[in-house]
Structures are given as structure tokens and as C-alpha cells.
Amino acid sequence: MNQNVFDDPRITAVGLLVEAHAGLSARFAAQLEEHGLSSVEFEVLTRLARSPGNQLRMTDLAAQTSLSTSGVTRVVDRMERDALLCRRACPNDRRSSYAVVTQAGLERLDDVLPGHLRIIEQWFTGQLDPPALAALLDGLRQVRDAVHPGATAGSTDLPPHLARPRDEDPVT
Amino acid sequence: MNQNVFDDPRITAVGLLVEAHAGLSARFAAQLEEHGLSSVEFEVLTRLARSPGNQLRMTDLAAQTSLSTSGVTRVVDRMERDALLCRRACPNDRRSSYAVVTQAGLERLDDVLPGHLRIIEQWFTGQLDPPALAALLDGLRQVRDAVHPGATAGSTDLPPHLARPRDEDPVT
DNA sequence: ATCCAACGTTTGCGCCAGCAACTATAGCTA
DNA sequence: TAGCTATAGTTGCTGGCGCAAACGTTGGAT
Lengths: 172, 172
Prior knowledge:
DNA-binding, 6 helices, mainly alpha, Arc Repressor Mutant, subunit A, 8% strand, homodimer, disordered C terminus, 56% helix, 3-stranded antiparallel β-sheet
């Protein structure tokens, strides 16, 4: 085993990405926990809250998160028990059901988001001057586009899966 | 709920980091699986292989990975069963034991590393021209140094799994 | 020498997630 | 209409992991 392999700049690069991600994720999780949310639950809340009618079908929710459909079933179970969202039958397709954020869920999100944004700024975006941040984000975007097929979409936000015009009623 | 919140550039930035990381991780996992390794096992192998004597104490291994000590116990159990490493009593401290990579473990690593490096180059470092890559890595390093608990020692009280006052990370 | 607090590791338990099997519905084809 | 296949969601099972308790060990204090 050649020791120098581990000094390969490619290994170093991956290490930086992984550690930056892990460090940020840990900070997020710590703040979310103060509000009684897991990272997954937070992601579910945001995905729903930004969707038309504050709702998504279970399958679409699974596609927008890193969860399988069975994982979504169980997260939604827990969050429904905690009154953060509720299931609603789909009128057109009796196989489907929507997960809909409740008022309590939206309020929880309102509680969490300011601190969440503050953390991003404190530990991530605020760590670099604007040109350096822009360069970082350009690089990340290029890697993301390469590695995440289907993530193209508008240059807008997280959900690459907006390219999933699954159902109708475009509210916003 | 204000819809514009989700278009906040800070949210976008985090989304890019998370998706780039998730995409790369998925590629890594796919290749590792071809060689019968999980990501955690690969990390354990690399951490041990680059340590003096190809060995680390369980606690130190836990500090260098994202695992708790109990997690390390179990991953070492599995890898010992698969003959990728073995435990060895610490002569100076009978509480401690070393995890030592076996020849088979080193060979497995040799099998995996070329493809691993190829994947990094194909989907990450090779996606950008050298100056852009340097800028990306500089940015990541700055964020890493900020969020990395070891680098910000003494400033905050962190959850136990974040508090890693050790020399954990010879990677970068 | 004894005590005791801290340490290293393992183990019991519970949570969470994925896979695959299952049920129910939808939609096409003839 | 009947039949076949694809789809949406849930559930049984399993494995991985963290927390906290347990156990042995260490090293310092008295």
C-alpha cells in the first residue's frame, strides 16, 4: 500500500467537500433539534411548503427528498401524529394521497427558518467575500449538474425535481 | 408562509452543496458496492491504512470517522468477520485495542482505489478547469475550517459528536 | 494500600431507513 | 366487458447506528 495515495489532491478535494458538508449538516441538525425537528422532517416541511397548495403526493415527496416511498410513508406517519401535516385523499386518483402541511407545520417552519438562514450565513456564505463565494457556488453548480442528472431546471433553488410536472392545479 | 424565502440565495447555496455531496456519495457507494464495501467500511480502511502500523485504537478510529464508538465496535466486528482487519490488544493499556488492517484489507483497498480516484476525477475535479477548481477548493477549505469543530476549538459548546478536540483529520 | 473518578470498549435497546411483498386502483387492449 | 400490466401507497422484515448503561482498567489522591 502506497502511503502517497492518500495525499492525492483528488482525495483531498473530496475530503474538503465531505467535511464542509458534514460540519454544516451537524449545525443544522443541532438547531433543528431545538425546535423538535429532524433534518428529514425539515426537508419534508420545506418541500411541501413551497409546493402549490402546500401539498405533494407521497411519491412526488419521495422524489424530492432522499427518501424511498416507504421512508416517506413513515415520516409522514410521524409528522401527521405530531400534527405538522395531514394526509388528504386525491380526488382524481384513489390510489394517491397528498401530504398537506398544517397551520402548525407552517408555524414550525416560521420558527425555524430565521435561525436556519442565520446559520447558513454564519458558517457558510458569510465565510467568504462575494467573489470567492460566487466562485465556490459556480464550482458546486458545475459538479452538481454533472453528478445530479435531472437537476438542471431553473437556476432557482434546491429542487431539481421541479421538472416533474406530475399533476395539475398550478396555484402559484 | 412567504414563498420568497425559498428563493433566498443562502438556501440555494446550501442546496448546491448538499446535492453535489449527495451525487458524489452515490457514485462512490455504487463503485464500492461492486467491491463489497460500504462507504463506512471504505473510510475505515483508508483511515487505518494511512495510520502508522496500519492500525488505530478504536476510540481514535471513531474520532476520525463520523461514527460513535459503538458504531466503530460494530463496523469493526463486521470487517473482522470479513477478514479485512483484526483486533489486537494494546500492550500498554489493557482497556484499549487496536484495529489493524489485514493483508486482505490492503488488497481490497488496492482493488478499489484506482476506480475511486477515477470517479473523483470524472465527476468532480475533472469537471472544472484548474483555476475554477482551485477557487472551489479554497472556498470549501474556508467553510470547512469554519465549521470544523477542531478548528474552532474553545469558541462554542457543541454537541458531543461535534466536539472532536483530537488530531482527527490528517486528510487535508 | 485503598479509593475513586475517568477512560476504552462492548452491549441492550430503540429508532430509522430500505427492500420486497402485498393491496388497491388505474388504464390500456381486445 | 374481461384481463393484463403499471402505478400509489403501506407493511413485514432486516440492518445500521446512536445513546446510555455496564464492565474492566487506569492513574491519581489520600
